[in-house]
Description:
By secondary structure, the protein is an all-alpha fold. Helix content is 70%, strand content 2%.
Amino acid sequence: MTETPRPPVATASAIADPGPLGLAAFALTTFLLSAKNAGWTDGTDAWLGYAFAYGGLCQLLAGMWEFRNRNVFGATAFSTYGGFWIGLGLYVHLVAPTAVAAGGPNAENLIQNDLGWILLAFAIFNTYMLLWSTQVNAAVFGVFLTLEVTEIFLFIGNLSHSTGTIKIGGWIGVLTALVAWYTSAAGVTNGMPGKLTLPVGSPFGGGRAAAPEPVTQ
């Protein structure tokens, strides 16, 4: 007598939601750099180490875990901005000193021109992610909306060598960090057992955010 093989049982992913970690890493590093851009700090580059270790590495890891959870939007967003922070850190650490050595009195303009084009490129990426964030929730949309405005002011300010415009971009960047921190905090508490929750809003257009597909083990 033969036994009929049973189909595999679909179970939920054993990986916790990496979104709150990715958002927290993005928020803190954005806050540190934005405070510098706004002219609020008197130090050097406190954001640089965290661009590698937190905003870069932790956010990249969050993106990889989102791939495991089959969340295409989260995986693309976190991996890209993790790469952004690592790339920006490498630029400041490796490329900018060469420009200072070779550019002489024009070095600052050369660096600002580079940063302007980098920020323009990421603003293009952020534009379509902003559109697709309408299908996630209002809090995530708020993160991408404030980030879009930040990047626009910063790439205009750097390409035009306008200190005032860069400062405005820094102020909006601080707001971006606060929105991202809130969204991270909501993800933490809403994923815990208990009655305390923070509202994040619904997707625009009355849609529902797609849940990750079940994982077969």
